[in-house]
């Protein structure tokens, strides 16, 4: 390959990368008229495709290509969500690719959640759960624990779920909206179950001083 061809190839690759980057930025972060239209169109197409995969999963008609797409999508979701939703990212990876061992998550976000603080103040000490929440009440919590359990003592809070397990493959009715910037992608539980995940115990724990010192 001569120098001119290499240079041309690099220019094409860089241009393609920039176009993909600009498109992704537009549909996930910008709010001008064109970006809104692109985002709405992209959401519809992506969510319709995901819904179709969920239906095929329920009917047990997934192809080998479909399963490859599911694994690729799972890894992409884990990577994309790692910065904005690290707890959900770690939980999803452990569920699909882990060995079922107990998982402890960082408590940093949960200990400062106004929603959780209000629930703990409402219920007080004791064992509580299962407790459910709407996604609007606390998006980040809902992506990890929904429902969730609480063990509250005078000095300690444990937020946990004893047996993380998504809806079974034949159930295409359970879903969660996952925000990716300004986009909202509708993810069905049974798509994850199609990847043969392993249920496990997951928790986060912190001192009640997190509240008492406020």
Task: Give the helix/strand layout.
Layout: H1 3-29, H2 33-58, H3 64-80, H4 86-97, E1 103-104, H5 114-123, E2 126-131, H6 139-142, E3 148-152, E4 156-164, E5 175-180, E6 183-188, H7 189-193, E7 200-207, H8 209-212
Parallel strand pairs: 1-7
Antiparallel strand pairs: 2-3, 3-4, 4-7, 5-6
How does this structure look, described?
This protein is of the alpha+beta class. Helix content is 49%, strand content 20%. The protein contains eight helices and seven strands. The strands form two sheets. The chain has a five-stranded mixed beta sheet. Strands 5-6 form a two-stranded antiparallel sheet. α3 runs antiparallel to α4.
Task: Please give the alpha-carbon distance between the first and last residues.
Answer: 66 Å
What's the gyration radius in Å?
21 Å
Strand tally: 7
Query: What is the string of helix and strand elements?
Result: HHHHEHEHEEEEHEH
Short synopsis of the structure:
The chain has 214 residues and is of the alpha+beta class. The chain has 8 helices and 7 strands; from the N terminus they run ααααβαβαββββαβα.
Key descriptive features of the protein:
alpha+beta; five-stranded mixed sheet; 214 residues; globular; 20% strand; 7 strands; two-stranded antiparallel ribbon
